[in-house]
Specification:
The chain has 223 residues and is mainly alpha-helical. It has nine helices and no strands. Helix 3 crosses helix 5. It starts with 22 loop residues before the first helix and ends in a 5-residue tail after the last helix.
C-alpha cells in the first residue's frame, strides 16, 4: 500500500495558516527547535504545510509498518493500520504542540491503534504467528542474524529459537510486550518508551527488566 501523499507546497515553503492555530504561539515554540527537526516540520504542518506532512509520512512509513507488523502479525493489517496512523496524525495536526518528540506522539498513536485492533479481534484469533525476527523486505536481513550461510543444524536451531522468542514475547503482559518491541526492534530508549506508554523513566526500566527477566527464564535453554 502506498504512503498517503498530499498535494502541497515544497518542503520549507511558507505555509498557510489554519483556523484554530495561533501563529504567534506556534512561531514561539518553533523558534526553539532545529528547523529541520521532525517537531519543527510538524509544527509547520499544523500551520498548513502539507508537503511537510508528506515528508514525515514517507520518512516513517516503513518503520511504522515494521513496528505494527510485530504488534499484529499480519502485513496487510499492519499497512492498513499505518495508513490510519498517518491519517490520524494529519487530522490532529492543529493540536500538535511539540511538548514531546514527534516520534513519541507518532508511536503513541500507533500503539493505541494496535492494542485496540488486538482487543477487537481477539475472539477471531486462536493462534497468532508474529515474526519478530522476520527479514527486512529491502535488505533481506534480520535483527539478530548474520548474513553468513548457516548449516542445516544451525538453521534448525535458529528457527527453533526464533519460534520460541515469538511465542514468549507475545505471551508477555501487554505493556511489557509493547515496551520490548519498541526497545529491541525500534531502538527506542527508556525515556521515549516511557513517553509513549505514559510511564516515568524508572517505571519503564522496571517494566523492561521484568519483561527481559521473564524472557531469559523462558529462553534459558536457547542461551
Amino acid at each position: 500500500m502506498a504512503t498517503m501523499v498530499l498535494n502541497g507546497p515544497a518542503l520549507g515553503a511558507e505555509p498557510k495558516h489554519r483556523p484554530g492555530v495561533n501563529p504567534e504561539a506556534v512561531a514561539g515554540v518553533r523558534a526553539d527547535l532545529d528547523p529541520a527537526s521532525d517537531a519543527a516540520i510538524m509544527l509547520r504542518v499544523a500551520e498548513g504545510d502539507e508537503a511537510g506532512f508528506n515528508y514525515l509520512a514517507q520518512k516513517y512509513h516503513r518503520p511504522m509498518i515494521n513496528f505494527l507488523y510485530r504488534m499484529v502479525g499480519n502485513h496487510a493489517i499492519a499497512e492498513e493500520l499505518a495508513q490510519e496512523v498517518f491519517l490520524r496524525v494529519y487530522r490532529a495536526r492543529s493540536s500538535y504542540r511539540a511538548e514531546a518528540r514527534f516520534t513519541t506522539w507518532l508511536y503513541r498513536i500507533a500503539t493505541n491503534l494496535a492494542v485496540n485492533h488486538a482487543r477487537d479481534t481477539k475472539h477471531e484469533r486462536t493462534a497468532q504467528t508474529v515474526y519478530l525476527d522476520a527479514a527486512d523486505e529491502e535488505t533481506g536481513t534480520t535483527p539478530d542474524l548474520a548474513d553468513d550461510d548457516p548449516s542445516a543444524e544451525e538453521r534448525m536451531l535458529r528457527d527453533e529459537r526464533m519460534a520460541a522468542i515469538r511465542l514468549h514475547v507475545m505471551a508477555l503482559p501487554e505493556r511489557q510486550r509493547m515496551a520490548v518491541l519498541m526497545h529491541k526492534y525500534q531502538g527506542m530508549d527508556y525515556r521515549q518508551i516511557g513517553d509513549v506508554l505514559k510511564l516515568s523513566e524508572s517505571a519503564t526500566k522496571s517494566l523492561l527488566f521484568r519483561a527481559y527477566q521473564t524472557l531469559r527464564e523462558k529462553l534459558k535453554d536457547f542461551v
